[in-house]
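Checklist before submission:
- one chain only
- standard amino acids only
- sequence pasted in full

Submission:
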Amino acid sequence: MSHRVVVTGMSSVSPLGEDWSDIFSHLKSCKNAIQHFPEWSEFEGLYTQLGAPAVFTDPGFSRKQMRGMGRVALLSVAATQRALADAGLLDDPAIQDGSMGVSYGSSAGAEAGLIDFGNMLVNKSTGTLNASSYIRMMAHTAPVNIGVFFKLKGRVITTSSACTSGSQGIGYAFEAIRDGKQRWMVAGGAEELSPSYAAVFDTLYAASTQNDSPETTPRPFDVNRDGLVTGEGAGTLILESLESAQARGAKIYAEIVGFATNSDGSHITQPNRETMQIAMEMALRDAKLDANQIDYINAHGTATDRGDVAESHATFNVFGSETPISSLKSYMGHTLGACGALEAIFSINMMHEKWFSPTVNLTEIDPDCAPLDYIRGEGRDIDATYIMSNNFAFGGINTSLIFKRYESA
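Returned file contents:
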C-alpha cells in the first residue's frame, strides 16, 4: 500500500535566523548574511575569507548530552528538537517504539574530530584522541546523535552526499513513509562552517574572493559572479503519512508528491546538464505532474560558472522560460549538507506566504545561462500550489523534490 506523505514539523538553524518570522523578514530585506572572516588570512594560499555563520541559540543541553557531539551534530539535534516540538511529538513516547526513523546527512563529521586524528598522524601520538573523537568525526554523526538523543529505534539512513545530503535525506525519508516502512521520519541535513570547506572550492577557483564587499556576493546566474560562499546550518523536517497526521490532528505544512535522484556517471566535479534534466523529469513523473503545473523552482544556484550554466539549461529544457526561479544561496551562501533541507523549509514557508524571494545581487544575467524567469528585485507574489526544489552535488549526484501546498478539506 502506498501512503501520501506530509510534513508536520519543521525547524531550521540558518544564517538568516532560527524562527520563520526572522527568516522571512531577512528574505524581504533582500540582503544577504555573508560575513568577512579576516582570521582566515592566516591560511597561506586560501584566497576566500567569506562565510555565512548560523544564528544559533544555545539549546542548553548538558555536558553529558553533548559528549559525542561536534558542532554539526549539535546543530542537527537542536533543529530536530524544535521540529519535533513543532510537530507535537517531542514528548510522545510512541516515537521511541521503533515507529520513527532518521534520514539525515552532512558532507562529513565535525572538524574537531578530524583534527584529533590528523594530529595523531602528524605527531605520531594518540595524545589528542579521546573516546568521542571518532563519534564526532564519523560521517553518520548527525543522524546517530539525533537517534540517541531522542531514543529513536527506527531505521537510520545516512545521506553523506555533499550538497545533496539534505535533499536526499528528505527524499529517502519520503520513500520510507510512502512504502509503509516507518510511521514517522526525521529528515534533513546539516553542516558546520569551516575554512577547510571554503578551501575545497578555493582550490578549484570556485570560491568568491570579494572579501572587502561581502554584501555583493554570491551572485548566482549573474555575469559578474566570481564563485560561491560557504555557510552553515541545519534543517529538520518531520514526515509522516497523511493518515497518521489526520488521526492525531496534526497541522500539515505540505505534501511531498515527488522525488528523484540520479548520478552523472561522468565527472566528479563537473556538472552534467543532461542528467540534471533527467532528475527533474523523473521527479515530475513521480509526482504525476506536467512541467507547466510547477509554480516555482528553488534553484541550486551556487554562483559557479559551470554549475549555473548547466543548471539553467537543464531547467530550461524541462520548463522553458515561464516558471519563476530563484536561489536562496544568494542570501546565506552554500550550506552544503544543510542546503537541501533549509531550502525546502524556506520554500514551503514562502509557498504559504504566497511570496517568493528574489536572487540577491542578480543584476545582469549571464548570457551563457538559459533565458529563465529569474526572480529579481523585490521578490514576487505567487499563489503557488506546486513547487520544486533542486540540488546537485560533487560526484555528479542530482536531486529534485516536489512539494504541494496542503489545504485541509
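Reviewer check: The domain at 5-405 is CATH 3.40.47.10 (Peroxisomal Thiolase; Chain A, domain 1).
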